[in-house]
Design goal:
mainly alpha, about 0% strand, Tetracycline Repressor, domain 2, about 300 residues, 13 helices
């Protein structure tokens, strides 16, 4: 759920990640357009907001818009990737603070909840209008699902250790259900709760669930064998692929080329998630990125982690 969160022009989560500022990998003009567009989408809706209106809000010409985006769909897809990366960075910042595992997860959930409250209007609009982004949507959704799963698995493991490994899938499903339930009530039903307390509250509920499973000696309902291969790949490899996925939308590539690269990422996520990743297949898929200078370092790191040689 958190990975679908996007934002608007008044974004201000500096207290969650004080050393990080908006701008990241986007040039200032492109970022200004995204901020303007998110503001208008939240106020007027996606379908009724024109490219001319976005350009005017950003103080640039319509032609300048097309220097950075091929279309309105390309624009909003780039925005989704960008704000997805921003909230992920804030979560990572909390993880790096050296807090006790339970306190860390509680604060991470708090960061996500605060973000949802801040951009509730835009999220409501997005759900209401059912925006169709294009062929790259499936790859982006798969990326978010994988990152969300790895995020929860990482935190569950930090809290409970390897002794509860057999229960990880059930624990992740139940925690995800609790989070999504509250986020739905916040976004759709408009309830107001203390976002700063929700994380600790949900962590305590997870402790209650674990205690109950152990006391009743419950057999796991969902096992590792139920989880698709592409969920179970090397976490470092998955992180690189997801970063590559995000970068695709930041580059000035033709739509058909960007869609092709998104599909290649989906294939790589699937292949690298196997118990014995097929090295020739992965080598061949990486060639699509090796030819693009912006992805050379990622390809080299993938090759190192997977113990393969890149093809010439």
């Amino acid at each position: 759920m958190y990975s679908a969160v996007t934002g608007s022009s008044t974004m201000d989560l500096g207290d969650a990640c004080p050393e990080r500022k908006l701008g990241g990998y986007l040039n200032p003009k492109k970022l200004k357009l995204i901020e303007a567009g998110m503001k208008l989408f939240a106020e007027k809706g996606y379908h009724t907001t024109s490219i001319e209106a976005i350009a005017a809000e950003a103080g640039v010409s319509k032609g300048a818009f097309y220097l950075h985006f091929h279309s309105k769909k390309d624009f909003i897809m780039t925005a989704f990737h960008y704000y997805h990366q921003e909230i992920s960075a804030r979560i990572k910042h909390v993880q790096q603070q050296g807090l006790a595992p339970r306190d860390s997860l509680a604060q991470q959930i708090g960061v996500v909840t605060k973000y949802i409250y801040k951009y509730k209007d835009f999220l409501t609009m997005h759900l209401r209008e059912n925006i169709a982004i294009g062929q790259s949507t499936d790859a982006f959704i798969q990326q978010m699902q994988l990152e969300h799963f790895n995020w929860l698995r990482y935190n569950v493991k930090k809290i409970y250790g390897n002794s509860m490994e057999a229960y990880y899938p059930d624990m992740i499903i139940q925690l995800e259900g609790l989070m999504n339930g509250y986020f739905k009530w916040i976004i759709i039903d408009g309830i107001e709760i203390d976002w700063n307390h929700l994380g600790a509250y949900l962590v305590r509920r997870m402790d209650d669930m674990v205690d109950g499973m152990l006391k009743r000696e419950e057999a796991p309902l969902v096992t590792q064998g139920h989880i698709p291969d592409w969920y179970q790949g090397d976490a470092d490899v998955s992180a690189i692929l997801m970063a590559m996925q995000t970068k695709i939308s930041t580059l000035d590539l033709p739509d058909d080329k960007a869609d092709q690269l998104h599909e290649v990422i989906t294939m790589l996520l699937h292949e690298t998630g196997k118990d014995e990743p097929p090295k020739p297949m992965i080598q061949g898929l990486l060639v699509h990125f090796q030819r693009i200078p912006d992805f050379v370092s990622e390809c080299q790191e993938m090759a190192r982690l997977l113990h393969i040689d890149l093809l010439d």
